[in-house]
Sequence to fold (271 residues):
Amino acid sequence: MNKNIVYSVFSSFTPMKTKKEIVKDWITRYTGVEIESFGEFILLTNFQKYVEEFANHNGVEVSGKEKNMPSATFENITIINFGMGSPNAATVMDLLFSIKPKAVLFLGKCGGLKKRINIGDFVLPIGAIRGEGTSNDYFPIEVPAMPSFSLQRAISSALKYQKIDYWTGTVFTTNRRVWEFDNKFKNYLKKVRAYSIDMETATLFTVGFHNRIPIGALLLVTDQPMIPDGVKTHVKDDVNSNLFDKKHLLIGIESLKQIINNEDTVRHLKF
Fold:
């Protein structure tokens, strides 16, 4: 292709000057899905297995397998694998600004920081500690990272209906993936008295609040990183995934269905 043709093609595009214009274009760029094809209720995950399981469970296809954020949609629910870490968490919440979903639920995995928390337990966070840094680009550090109360209540109801116990408390969100050897950092975690640790929840809550998107989270405990025997290995991770992942996903689906069927509002403030 010669330079004149390239220049002609690019000069015909309308410049994107606003956030709304950018994310409306980028959500398809990242997912491979046209904006009108998304459901009004969103499940977020870090794991492609969850997207595949959702698709198999509902008899639908996975979209955008070759893209950064594969997804699947059934009825009014779309599940998206946005990848790992707080920058990706911020990106997906900014992209979702283009469709303004009625509710977003993060099905994340976390490390349990208390001796009484076991692998396979669920944590329903009532808040998150912003230790990741990414959220600082959206709000001053004094602004707490909090979920939508009504959405967390729906998750609680779904868990109780299935007679599943869960923990509530704060989750510490960090950008550090490898810290299990660092005793100084572990002592700091004890001081802040968080129940669990992950890499996305605080960012999702903060950027969701910034974009006026109701968001909640249900975290599955998959390791106990405060003790050497509890550090996750690939063998342990495979075992835990086979035992707990499907239950985690089905609870998430049931929680959103409860919101949909009851036609509840999940906004924790009047935006």
About this structure: Residues 105 and 210 are 16 Å apart (CA to CA). Strands lie at 41-45, 71-74, 77-81, 103-112, 122-131, 167-174, 196-198, 215-223. Helices lie at 3-11, 19-31, 48-58, 86-96, 149-161, 183-192, 201-210, 234-262.
